[in-house]
Amino acid sequence: MLDTPLQLVAGLADGLLPPVVLGVTALTLLVIDTVRPDEASLALLSGVSAAGSLVAFGVAAALLAGGVDPTTVYGGAVMLDGTSLYFTLVFASVTALVSVASYDYLRGQDYSGEFYALVLFSATGMSLMAAANSLATAFVALELTSLPSYALVAFLKQNEGSSEAGLKYFLVGAVSSAVLVFGISLVYAATGALTFGAVAEGLTTADDLVGIVGLGVVMIAGGMAFKTAAVPFHFWAPEAYEGAPAPVSAFLSSASKAAGFALAFRVFVGAFPLDVLVPMGIDWVLIFQVLAVVTMTLGNFAAATQENVKRMLAYSSIGHAGYALIGLAALSADGPNGAVLGASMAHLFVYGFMNTGAFLFVAMVEHWGVGRTFEDYNGLATRAPMASVAMTVFMFSLAGLPPFGGFFSKYALFYAAVDSGFWWLAAVGAVNSALSLFYYSRVVRALWIEEPAVDLSLGRRPVGLYVAVVGAALGTLLLLPAFGPVVETAQTVAATLF
Amino acid sequence: MVHVILEALMTVTAAAALVTFLVPDEYAGRAAAAFSALPLVGSLLLWAGFDGRGNALVDGEIAFETTAPWLTLGGYEVSWHVGLDGVSLPLVVLTAVLTTLAIVSAWSAIDERQSQFYGLVLFMETTLIGVFVALDFLLWFVFWEAVLVPMYLLIGVWGGPRRKYAAIKFFVYTNVASLAMFIGFVALVLAAPVQTFDLPAVAAALRNEQISALLGLSPDALRTAAFAVMFAGFAVKVPVVPFHTWLPDAHVEAPSPVSVLLAGVLLKMGTYALLRYNFTMLPEAAAALAVPIAAVAVLSVLYGAMLALAQEDLKRIVAYSSVSSMGYVILGLVAYTLYGVGGATFQMVAHGLISGLMFMAVGVIYHSTHTRMVGDMSGMADRMPVTTGILVAGAFGYMGLPLMAGFAGEFFVFVGSFASTTLPFAPVFTATAMFGIVVVAGYLLLAMQRTLFGPFRLDTDYEVHEAPLRDTVPLAVLLLCIVALGVAPDLLFGMIKDAVVPILQGGGL
To answer: Number of structural domains, chain A?
Structure first.
């Protein structure tokens, strides 16, 4: 039942346009790099990359605002609905910020054309992950996201840390891909289907294969845990984020993580419905409850003991994966599931801005050559007040302090958990969130309160990084008054998944 | 009805903060003072045009009200709802007056990173106004917490030698308290038959006792538990003994202009919130817990005064005496009579002005002598007659000299609490608290006698002259306000009474 070409084109207009825009932008970047392979084209590359992401953002926003009927194309392999468009907004905004910021970071580096192309290819993969409607598409899209990101982490190939991080990331990634594909094959063996709807249907008659299905579900959950940097597949994250160029860390810890969640939401809600699996004895919500609690707690405590700001942010991003997992952990057969999942999606949206901004600030500090520990950050506010204000906004917003976007997104998430009857998940989240203020405020204290080193001087102001950091800060601030439409959209589109 | 005047006031103040942040250091102080005149004039215009009646939370006519839907969280409406009544307007004016004076007094006191300092002060003014005008819980909470960020930095960057410790202690104490209070109030909202965080709506539901059981707690138990948790949360801010230990550290380390705002306005956030939430929304729980609350209040009065008596540092003396004065406010609130609650509200303003004056005067003396230790100096009146004259006048205001604001505030509180019917043993509590005045008079007179009078002596060997006009004028302005409110308390007390009466009709007069 292949679609005719005409239907395919119609599919594009219906909602596959954003990933196509991202993919075409990536190809354009390669062409530009071939035609003008000199350093002068850096601004052009950066501009095209940012513009492509913004166009994808605009298209997705316009389609979302126009209202979408969920439709499938390519024989049911890809689903075009609000959820895929919503997540594309997250990926596109992060990609745009990273593209602008990389302009300064890549100055004097070779292969900047490849860098931008890889970022955009990876973003294309993310956008497809959010639209996957079949286990096969899911796997292919995940690999399309992952393969460029391995190369990106190792981009500074003369730098030991970067190469090491790339290798570690690749090895863990390869293992978890193997686990994921094994899980997919088990589920296929039990149900004979790959598209989510068919898998769900097949499971209703798979009573005698509970063991195989159960193992498959656990393995798929493991594959998701890798992509979202959740326990127990989180080991790669601190290494990769610390070793990678900071804009890449920003990209991975915000966009790539959100893509993992997008896919996890789709697979588990679409292919493994609770009302079918729970009677079989496969209560996957339990897995995510354990993962959520352990991930947020471990991420938080590990973050509190770091001396290196980038590593602290890496662990904090693990902690935030724990919060977002509440979106799956607080589901129940008859609860307000759309609200829970939507709240988690809204948190990922806000997180996209505040976490990207924080890593880009680290990128700026690396650009200045100041150093990486909290102590090296001492007194930066005396030299770069605007950037420090932005970083303060990111830190307090990540901690969930009320004047910023992160407050409402956490509140909505914890409230949704309480409302579904999982008050203990919300309680663990709230306690962790309160504790997190400790290490986030350390950055603020270093920036503003500690005395700068006598010889602290920063050199010139990186324009691209400044624009990206201030843009992310404005986003974080504006998401406080503008949180309403974000969470309402997220909960509406999430409700259609069930 | 839509007024935009409060929004305009806050936008102008926020814009002023942003511009000040970018002004070069040399001009920042003058620019900030000029900018802060805008919200000052604005707040005085609000006062002149005030047309509110009754209490904003209890069916009152709210002045300058705006309501606009903001978002829906889990089925609960959150709105941009701001407005003023007779309780909040005096505090908005107090905020504007003290901010401008603190900025002028900072011209001498602050000499590094000035644009950042003044920018943060103006930003804090914006958030403080937000706290007093917000009539939606989440909106209010956003402003309530937003105040902490500039205050944390103001203490941490421009403070004394132990500023880092003091700043983080302030930040952690008040944040933990806010979290407790937040959970307590949200639990009440979840149990109440409302789908909104709008404070008047929630207050109406709670005062009508329409509340269901939640998480295994019966309505009565929930009400009492929420009251206790919220009281503890706000008590840290006030502060009430035994939650007061962050205060002396914060005050001693903060630069004088920041102390002025901390004592003058930030402490009032706590008592204002107690009045708005605990005592307006949960009168039965307040009555049930009246004895322990009154005991805490009297303890704060006496213990705070005793601690002040034992200090050698002028700033610590004033800081601890704030603990003592805020005890009177709590006593007035728990008395639950017109003069008790009204007097407590009046005392918030009076104490804001008087403690502001005291901290400012101590700051001026410190700037000349580089010491605040009582034992290091004597006879300052010889060299700085104007400053010390105003300081002495302010101290008498603190002691409750008639015709000064402090007298009116304390007198109202005592009259009200003596006559209380909700508070058992009210005369005993009142009489014990009144003894605090004796101690206050004792330590203030003693400290003044040792430092201001007698032959001139200064151990730090600085040349001491009369302070320049830019230091003494703010002091004089504050003194004028204090005397004006003392001579004619009805300038404010009229509207305060009008806003307090509706609260009490739920719980007896």
So the answer is: 1
Q: How far apart are CA B312 and CA B318, in angstroms?
A: 11
Asked if residue B357 belongs to a domain, the reply is yes
Cα–chain-centroid distance for residue B167?
18
If pLDDT is split at 50, 70 and 90, which confidence band does A1 have?
A: very low
Question: What is the nearest CA distance from B247 to chain A, expressed in angstroms?
Answer: 19
Residue-level pLDDT at A456: 74
* Predicted confidence (pLDDT) per residue in B175-186, tens digit: 889 988 998 999
Query: Does A307 reside within a domain?
Result: yes
Please give the ipTM for the structure prediction: 0.87
Mean pLDDT score of chain A = 89
Rounded CA-CA distance A201/B266 in Å is 61
Q: Is the pLDDT of residue A418 over 50?
A: yes
B81 forms beta bridges with B67
pTM of the model: 0.91
Q: Give percent helix, percent strand, percent coil of chain A, each to the nearest 5.
A: 80, 0, 20
- What pLDDT score does B422 carry? 86
CA distance linking residue A37 with residue A111, whole number of Å: 9
**Structure-token pair, residue B335:** 């008395």
Q: Select the residue from B10, B11, B73 to test the A interface by mutation, using most A Cβ atoms within 10 A.
A: B73
Tens digits of residue pLDDT in B86-104: 999 999 999 999 999 999 9
Q: Count of CB atoms within 10 A of residue B22's CB?
A: 12
Cβ proximity of A315 and A238 under 8 Å = yes
Query: How sure is the predictor about A13, in pLDDT bands with cuts at 50, 70 and 90?
Result: low
Peptide bond into A247 cis (omega under 30): no
Alpha carbon separation from A400 to A246, A323, A438 (Å, rounded): 23, 12, 12
pLDDT band at A423 (very low <50, low <70, confident <90, very high): confident
**Residues of chain B contacting A, Cβ within 8 Å:** 21, 70-74, 78, 113, 116, 127, 138, 141-146, 148-149, 152-153, 156-157, 163-164, 167-168, 171-172, 175-176, 179, 183, 215
Percent of chain B with pLDDT over 90: 54
Is B458 among the domain residues? yes
Count the Cβ atoms, other than its own, within 10 Å of residue A71.
15
In chain B, the number of structural domains is: 1
A431-462 core/surface letters (b: 16 or more CB in 10 A; e: else): ebbbbbbebbbbbbbbbbbbebeeebebeeeb
Residues of B in contact with A383 (CB under 8 A): none
Domain assignment present for residue A21? The answer is: no
Average pLDDT along chain B: 90
Which structural domain range is residue B494 located in? Answer: 289-509
Name the residue among A184, A268, A232, A182 with its Cα closest to residue A497: A268
Residue holding tokens 């504050």? B478
d(CA B65, CA B82) in angstroms, rounded, equals: 6
Residues B48-66, mean pLDDT to the nearest whole number:
89
Neighbouring CB atoms inside 10 A of B282's CB total 25
> What are the pLDDT digits (tens) for A160-200?
888 999 999 999 899 999 999 999 999 999 998 899 999 99
Residue A28, C-beta contacts closer than 8 angstroms, at least 6 positions apart: A48, A52
Provide the residue range defining the domain that includes A336: 283-498
Structure tokens at A288: 């995510």
The C-alpha atoms of residue B178 and residue B273 are separated, in whole angstroms, by 11
In the predicted structure, residue A63 carries a pLDDT above the cut 60: yes
With residue B458 as reference, give the H or E element that holds it: strand B457-458
Does a structural domain hold residue A42?
Answer: no
Main-chain dihedrals φ then ψ at residue A433, nearest 5 degrees = -65, -40
Strand partners, A133: none
Alpha helices in B370-425 (DSSP H): 380-383, 385-399, 405-418
Pairing mode of beta strands A71-73, A78-80? antiparallel
Taking residues B221-241, report their average pLDDT.
91
Residue A494 in domain: yes
CA A226 to chain B, closest CA, distance in angstroms equals 31
